[in-house]
């Protein structure tokens, strides 16, 4: 009985989705238009015919590094909130955390992960 | 029973001598190999004869030359070796037969390649065989029992005849799998001793004093039986033997037949009957029946062979059937019969395999039709063949006579029908031996195509003559041998209690 | 939790018990900095190899710093005891033996990555902490550290698509296993409000029985995936075949050793309420693994894959004796885990020397007549194969005999017969390899290039295989004492 809210939410979710989609299927017009299924790209015609474009692999490694350093920044937020309370111990601890991640950045730098990867042989 | 340590270290030394010889062979140039192997195995044999000096012949149920070094003290596993009467006779037999096998190989023209490895394998086998027969710790026994397989698989597989790879696989895999049951049984026995006395123990004399309930004894008896039945071999677990013996080189077959089979039957006597007397008393009839079935089935198969080496191999199976049947009569004559037959069969099967190998060296064939009548033109050799054949079939004054006669006597103590059954099966060995002799002497062409073969001479002649002399010694003076192992057999009989039907 | 309280309870002086781990970590750090600072060259490769060896040697010598028998440090999250010390020493020695092979293998195959050295060090650090802890969080973090290092090392084969595929499979299924470990840990924490395995298993009562049992089984499951128990083994043959062979040897020996230790630590605490669920799951998993692992190995035509399946089967053997709830079972399990690492490593290392010749692909039909090409390698390979099979007097035999004893003492006869059947199946492929090596005519002619350090490593492993088999008391006394001790304190709780 304690979960009646959850169950009613589930029922409403399911019911609403089913009803809306079936109403669309029953009542909507079914005319084939050439550009109805065209992928959206801010009004500009597509560069690539396939809906999923391949992106350059240079972006891939940058994306990985972005992910890591973004998470690092995200961890800095809670620390920033309790900074006063933690004192020197907190400062040194997070400093070490940042140093380790910076070493990772230096590693990526030295291993040419930050260079623009145009050729495949350096993999 | 006491543990006499006078002269201790001699057995371990005699196990080391072949290993030292192997190392010398490995590092010295190839021309020294044969001489080194010959001297090494002769030295081991002489050491084993020297150990006779330390035995007190009036009290042979003690353990002499006893050494005991714990390996894992907590689990009761120790390196304990020593000889009593029964072990001593097998110890001398194994070193002697290994020496004869190496002596034969020195002049065997079939062994042309990889000489160093060949002799090394035989020397290692000698060490392991000594270990098997002198071990008093069950785990140590198992270690050496398994180890004898390793050089033998190489001997069969590298220097054997046409089907050697198949035979090597079959030999190793069959015997290894069956001995896993033995390992499991030993561990269960050790665990039982822990449950009863609080100590793990794999030491045979202390395991004898353990009294297990009948179900447990029968279960362990069956586990041990699986391993030893494959080794002995008993029908229907014998199928590895014709291939292994038939495809091994001569010296390999000699060592396999003369000693390795005896490991199985020795183990039956010591372990199955000694450790599980109640189970033996319950299952004796089944074991005797299996033994008799082995004799008859193997004899039939023997007669059907057209390959003389396989012929001798199957005849070995039939002799081993006799040994097991005699043993499980569970009386003194039966034990005596099986032990003397083990020794006699050791000599006669060695001699028969050497005969087959010699004929192959001359005629390059094992086919009975090809070699028919070949012996007539080698007079000295033909004498040896005839003497071996008659002795193996159980003629009085021959080696197998006492085995068969005492078996019939021991069967008579149970029932007349059993004795008649044993007598009939003893008849079969005469049948196949007469086949063998007829094939070699009386058949075949009489033209002079065999006149070009030289007779047996030199080392091979000495080896075979010594075997023939020993066979007749068993036949004519059995008390020499009985004197050595009777005391141990009496001790085993005491464990069972006097068994009368 | 007040930060000052947290600070005050940290015992910095207890780091002296962690000297081996610290030296390994420091070594990893130094190698990492060197990699960043130095330019790629032949001298750099040699310097890496020798610095790694020096740090590992320092680590072994620092064990004499902490002579304690049993101590909980860092408020119970870390335990220093003989089992931990033995496994740490074994892991370091195994790493030492693998390092020369990494160097020559990567050179010959033109796939040299300096990362291998410090990633190996970090995985070693993870293994060492995994072997020394009863705390769920520490186990989780160490498991991750070891696994991630293994994922990376599996992929380090330049240009080989198979290598990346194997690493990918390892990654995905390893990820699943770590999540299951976390789920099990959550259940165990919910059952007992404690993160220490000892307290968790001792806190059995009727209300939390279900959660505790489910947590324990899930925890067992996570480690079962890691050690390759059928039916969770699907990543193992692919990952082992895909990785460079010295890395495979490292994973199969030290990795498996480390992954088993938490199970071995868990076992004494399985009290009689939990025993039935523990025993049923462990014994059935072990029986299935033993038989199917060996049966699958029998049909392989690639030697490396065959060795991978044989390592699956050996995990089954070790797991089977864990189902016997006795100190004898624990002793047998610990002993067999240690000796399997020696034998397994030896087999893979011989294979890695052979692979360095261009004409060698790992197919069984090409192994014929290897004895003609190279006596030393074929004899040592035969020794390792005989050890894996269980021929006396090698360590493999002692391990199997102890497994039989451990099963016999609790009357679990059916598992003993399954073990016999499994060994019977394994005889087929081990004997086939030995027979083909020595008794067939030569299939391919080549001369393996000899490197002195590699030969020393293989020779040492062969020596250990035989010496520890003939004189098992070297390891046995320590193992026996610690097992009795662990069982005693488990029963006191």
Give the helix/strand layout.
The complex is a heterotrimer of chains A (123), B (501) and C (493).
Chain A: H1 4-27, H2 57-81, H3 83-110
Helix pairs in contact in A: 2-3
Chain B: H1 10-27, H2 33-50, E1 64-72, E2 77-83, H3 85-106, H4 115-134, H5 138-147, H6 149-159, H7 164-197, H8 204-208, H9 214-231, H10 240-247, H11 250-275, H12 277-304, H13 308-327, H14 332-363, H15 368-371, H16 379-393, H17 400-412, H18 416-442, H19 458-476, H20 478-496
Antiparallel strand pairs in B: 1-2
Helix pairs in contact in B: 1-2, 1-4, 2-3, 2-4, 3-4, 3-11, 3-14, 3-20, 4-5, 4-6, 4-11, 5-7, 6-7, 7-9, 7-10, 9-11, 9-12, 10-11, 10-13, 11-13, 11-14, 12-13, 12-18, 13-14, 13-17, 13-18, 14-16, 14-17, 14-19, 14-20, 16-18, 16-19, 17-18, 19-20
Chain C: H1 3-8, H2 19-37, H3 42-61, E1 70-73, E2 78-81, H4 82-108, H5 115-130, H6 136-154, H7 161-192, H8 197-202, H9 209-227, H10 235-242, H11 245-266, H12 272-298, H13 303-322, H14 327-355, H15 370-373, H16 375-389, H17 395-409, H18 413-439, H19 452-470, H20 473-492
Antiparallel strand pairs in C: 1-2
How does this model look, in words?
The complex is a heterotrimer of chains A (123), B (501) and C (493). With 123 residues, chain A is mainly α. Chain A is built from three helices and no strands. Chain B has 501 residues and is mostly helical. Chain B is built from 20 helices and two strands. Chain C has one domain. In chain C, strand 1 and strand 2 form a beta hairpin. The longest helix of chain C is centred in the middle third of the chain and has 32 residues. Classes of the chains: A mainly alpha (123), B mainly alpha (501), C mainly alpha (493). Chains in contact: A-C, B-C. At the B-C interface, strand 1, helix 5, helix 6 and helix 7 of B face helix 17, helix 18 and helix 20 of C.
């Amino acid at each position: 009985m304690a979960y009646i809210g959850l169950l009613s939410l589930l029922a409403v979710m399911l019911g609403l989705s089913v009803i809306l989609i079936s109403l669309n299927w029953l009542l909507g017009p079914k005319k084939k238009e050439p550009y109805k299924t065209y992928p959206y790209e801010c009004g500009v015609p597509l560069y690539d015919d396939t809906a999923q474009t391949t992106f350059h692999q240079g972006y891939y490694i940058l994306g990985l590094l972005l992910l890591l350093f973004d998470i690092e920044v995200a961890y800095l937020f809670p620390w920033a909130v309790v900074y006063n309370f933690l004192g020197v111990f907190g400062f040194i601890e997070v400093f070490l955390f940042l140093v380790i991640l910076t070493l990772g950045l230096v590693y990526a730098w030295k291993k040419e992960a930050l260079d623009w990867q145009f050729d495949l042989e350096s993999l | 029973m006491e543990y006499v340590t006078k002269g201790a270290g001699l057995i371990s030394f005699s196990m080391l001598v072949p290993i030292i010889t192997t190392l010398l062979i490995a590092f010295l140039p190839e021309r020294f190999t044969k001489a080194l192997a010959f001297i090494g195995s002769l030295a081991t044999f002489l050491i084993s004869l020297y150990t006779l000096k330390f035995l007190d012949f009036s009290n042979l149920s003690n353990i002499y030359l006893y050494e005991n070094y714990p390996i894992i003290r907590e689990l009761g596993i120790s390196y304990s070796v020593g000889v009593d009467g029964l072990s001593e006779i097998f110890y001398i037999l194994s070193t002697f037969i290994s020496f004869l096998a190496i002596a034969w190989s020195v002049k065997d023209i079939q062994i042309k390649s990889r000489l160093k490895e060949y002799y090394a394998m035989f020397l290692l086998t000698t060490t392991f065989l000594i270990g098997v027969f002198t071990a008093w710790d069950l785990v140590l026994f198992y270690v050496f029992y398994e180890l004898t397989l390793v050089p033998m698989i190489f001997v069969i597989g590298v220097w054997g005849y046409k089907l050697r790879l198949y035979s090597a696989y079959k030999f190793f895999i069959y015997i290894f799998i069956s001995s896993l049951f033995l390992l499991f049984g030993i561990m269960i026995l050790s665990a039982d001793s822990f449950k009863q006395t609080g100590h793990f123990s794999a030491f045979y004399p202390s395991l004898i004093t353990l009294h297990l309930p009948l179900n447990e004894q029968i279960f362990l008896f069956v586990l041990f039986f699986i391993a030893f039945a494959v080794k002995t071999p008993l029908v229907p677990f014998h199928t590895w033997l014709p291939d292994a013996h038939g495809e091994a080189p001569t010296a390999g077959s000699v060592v396999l037949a003369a000693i390795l089979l005896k490991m199985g039957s020795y183990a039956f006597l010591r372990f199955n009957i000694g450790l599980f007397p109640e189970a033996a008393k319950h299952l004796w009839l089944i074991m005797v029946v299996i033994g008799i079935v082995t004799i008859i089935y193997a004899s039939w198969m023997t007669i059907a062979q057209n390959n003389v080496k396989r012929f001798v191999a199957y005849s070995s199976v039939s002799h081993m059937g006799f040994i097991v049947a005699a043993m499980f009569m569970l009386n003194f004559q039966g034990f005596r019969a099986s032990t003397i037959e083990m020794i006699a069969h050791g000599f006669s099967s060695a001699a028969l395999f050497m005969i087959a190998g010699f004929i192959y060296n001359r005629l390059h064939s094992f086919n009975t039709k090809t070699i028919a009548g070949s012996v007539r033109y080698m007079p000295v050799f033909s004498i040896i063949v005839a003497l071996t054949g008659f002795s193996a079939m159980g003629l009085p004054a021959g080696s197998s006579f006492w085995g068969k006669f005492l078996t019939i006597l021991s069967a008579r103590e149970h029932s007349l029908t059993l004795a008649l059954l044993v007598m009939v099966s003893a008849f079969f060995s005469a049948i196949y031996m007469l086949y063998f002799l007829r094939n070699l002497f009386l058949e075949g062409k009489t033209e002079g195509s065999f006149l070009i073969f030289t007779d047996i001479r030199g080392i091979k002649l000495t080896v075979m003559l010594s075997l023939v002399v020993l066979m007749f010694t068993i036949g004519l003076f059995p008390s020499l041998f009985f004197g050595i192992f009777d005391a141990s057999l009496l001790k085993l009989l005491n464990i069972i209690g006097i068994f009368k039907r | 939790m007040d930060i000052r309280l947290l600070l005050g309870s940290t015992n910095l002086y207890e780091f002296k018990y962690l000297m081996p781990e610290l030296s390994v970590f420091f070594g990893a750090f130094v190698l990492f900095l060197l990699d960043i600072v130095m330019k790629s060259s032949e001298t750099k490769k040699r310097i890496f190899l020798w610095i790694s060896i020096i740090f590992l040697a320092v680590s072994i010598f620092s064990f004499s710093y902490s002579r304690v028998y049993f101590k909980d440090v860092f408020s119970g999250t870390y335990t220093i005891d003989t089992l931990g010390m033995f496994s740490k020493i074994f892991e370091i020695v195994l790493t030492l033996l693998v390092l020369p092979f990494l160097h020559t293998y990567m050179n010959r195959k033109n796939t040299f990555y300096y990362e291998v050295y410090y990633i190996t060090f970090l995985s070693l650090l993870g293994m060492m902490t995994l072997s020394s802890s009863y705390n769920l969080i520490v186990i989780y973090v160490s498991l991750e550290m070891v696994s991630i290092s293994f994922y990376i090392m599996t992929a380090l084969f330049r240009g080989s698509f198979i290598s990346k595929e194997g690493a990918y499979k390892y990654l995905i299924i390893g990820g699943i296993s770590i999540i299951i470990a976390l789920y099990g840990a959550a259940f165990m924490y919910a059952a007992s409000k404690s993160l220490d395995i000892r307290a968790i298993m001792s806190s059995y009562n009727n209300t939390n029985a279900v959660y505790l049992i489910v947590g324990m089984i899930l925890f067992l499951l996570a480690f079962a995936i890691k050690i390759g128990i059928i039916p969770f083994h699907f990543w193992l043959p692919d990952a082992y075949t895909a990785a460079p062979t010295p890395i495979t040897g490292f994973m199969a020996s030290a990795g498996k050793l480390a992954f088993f230790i938490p199970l071995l630590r868990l076992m004494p605490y399985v009290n009689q309420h939990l025993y039935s669920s523990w025993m049923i799951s462990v014994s059935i998993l072990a029986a299935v693994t033993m038989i199917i692992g060996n049966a699958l190995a029998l049909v392989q035509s690639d030697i490396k894959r065959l060795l991978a399946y044989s390592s699956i089967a050996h995990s089954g053997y070790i797991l089977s004796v864990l189902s016997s709830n006795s100190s004898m079972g624990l002793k047998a399990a610990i002993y067999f885990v240690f000796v399997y690492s020696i034998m397994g490593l030896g087999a893979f290392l011989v294979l890695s020397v052979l692979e360095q010749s261009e004409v060698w692909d790992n197919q069984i039909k090409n192994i014929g007549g290897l004895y003609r090409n190279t006596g030393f390698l074929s004899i040592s390979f035969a020794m390792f194969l005989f050890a894996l099979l269980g021929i006396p007097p090698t360590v493999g035999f002692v391990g199997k005999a102890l497994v039989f004893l451990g099963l016999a003492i609790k009357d679990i006869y059916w598992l003993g017969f399954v073990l016999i059947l499994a060994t019977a199946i394994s005889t087929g492929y081990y004997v086939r390899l030995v027979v083909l090596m020595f008794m067939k005519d030569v299939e391919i002619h080549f001369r393996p290039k000899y490197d002195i350090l590699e030969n020393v490593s293989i020779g040492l492993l062969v020596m250990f295989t035989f010496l520890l088999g003939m004189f098992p008391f070297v390891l046995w006394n320590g193992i026996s004492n610690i097992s009795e001790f662990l069982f005693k304190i488990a029963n006191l709780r």
